[in-house]
Structures are given as C-alpha cells and as structure tokens.
Amino acid sequence: MSVFIQLFGASPGLAKTGPDAPTKSEVSRLRAQVEDLQRRLDTMTLAAQAMWELLRAHGRFSDTDLLEKMQEVDLRDGEADGRISSGLVNCPGCGRRNRTSRRHCVFCGAALPTPHVVG
Question: What residue ranges do the domains of the chain occupy?
C-alpha cells in the first residue's frame, strides 16, 4: 500500500457515495498516480542516500554538514517547513526579481541563477 494512503488515508472525495461519487475509472487513475508518485519518491530517496554515502565515505562531509546544509536550503524561502518552495531570485543582469522556476529574466533576458537542481 502506498505511503501516502497509509499516512493520510483515502482522499475524502473518494469516500463519497451517490451521484457526486468519483467513478471507478477516476479512482483507478488516482490510485495509479499515487503509486507512480510513491515509486518516484522511493527512487529519489534511494538516489539521495547513495549520493550522501559516497560523499561521506570519501571524507568530504559529515552528517552535521548535511544537516546544516539542509536547514540552509530549507530556509531559502524564509520558512523552516522541510520543503523547497519556488520563490524569487534577483537577476544578475538587471537586478529585478524573477520566479526561481524561470531560466531567463523576463525583463532583460539574462540567464538566471538556478537555486535548486531538483524541484
């Protein structure tokens, strides 16, 4: 069973009965999406753990270094919430603010810094 369903239970919309209840195909589609997200989460978790173990094994970083960097990255959006949120970044060309999801400044076209490789 998916970790999402275990943690949060079935979606309240899926428990509905009557004319507004989701169809079987809708429920199947949503379950497939949750299963796909679980597979992707598992893969990313495995990759992150493997990368960390390589870095630690080569004596480059300690667990404390990792935890400090995680906190730094978490706080980039101004909120310690355990997530990476898109936000704003200053353009190196004109100094105007752009969304972190953009690759180029909407004002001058300069390449924007990429604060997050993943996400």
Answer: 3-61
What is the C-alpha separation between 85 and 74, in angstroms, rounded?
Answer: 8
Render pLDDT for 78-96 as a digit per residue (tens, 0 to 9): 778 988 777 788 899 999 9
Match 């809708």 to its residue by tokens.
26
Q: What is the rounded end-to-end Cα distance, in angstroms, of the chain?
A: 25
The reported pTM is: 0.54
User: DSSP secondary structure string, 77-103?
Assistant: GT--SSS----EEE-TTT--EEETT-S
In this model, does residue 46 exceed pLDDT 60? yes
pLDDT above 50 (res 33): yes
- Residue corresponding to tokens 């909407």: 106
Cα–Cα distance, 12 to 114 (Å, whole number): 37
Give the angle subtended at the CA of 100 by the CAs of 62 and 40, to the nearest 5°.
60
